[in-house]
Write a structure and sequence with these properties.
2 domains; Rossmann fold; ten-stranded mixed β-sheet; 11 helices
Length: about 280
Amino acid sequence: MKKILVPFDFSKAAVSAFRFALDLAQSSKGRIYFVHVIELPVLHDTLLMPTLNFEKELLKELREKAAKRFKKLTEKNKRDSVNVSWDVLFGAPSKTLLELIQAEEFDIVVVGSHGASGLREYVIGSNAEKIIRRSPIPVLVTKKYRKRAIKNIVFPNTLETENQSALIDKVKALQDFFRARLHVVWINTPVNFTSDVLTQRKLEVFAKHYGLTRYTLNIFNHPNEEDGIIHFNELVGGDLIAMGTHGRKGLIHLLNGSVAEDVANHTESPIWTYSLRNEDSR
């Protein structure tokens, strides 16, 4: 986690993400890159030059304003061992950030989220959701900053022993970085119910196949997967939830949803995600 991207809109959630990223960068001797994306209104004018001049002045003013706010923020949260740089980009936030992620060799994105609920969650979603769904690198979503060591990582999984190698490698690296214990859990719901005997065998095969260390194997019964993950995390005192996401989008996402995105919306715990679409592209 040497190169950490923090999308920033100066909200409380974004400040929490920055403070979390500071802890990561301090431990890894890494660097934080702030990016503030401003979505501009579409401007129309019958004379092109006045519009262009207005836009130029507007962009300059917005950049200068952001610069002052960044300077104030970094001075207030200064840590001598952490290098911080920033930039202001203009465009649609999620699209602009994803283009930046693909162009630069970042190790992780740390993003603040307010969560979402009701109609907004299903129709509009949040920028954090869109980044989780499409990012080619791990994304860590946080809501409220807590100065707390990460000692227990909860890892819900389908227990497949194929097409998860990249995800497992990332999770193992995450576990090593924090020197944490990994709690692998199968959420047993009425929809995907399997007997405890069969599931226990699958858990053991899964752990052996991927060479896991410092772990526990768990079966948690619950009416639905999302709430089961959140409640299990609370039960074991989890400090971080790590999940793979299929990166669904469009109509498929609307119909099937994404458990990782739902958990990110509704848990107060930080959640780390990695898209399984990266496996499919191999």
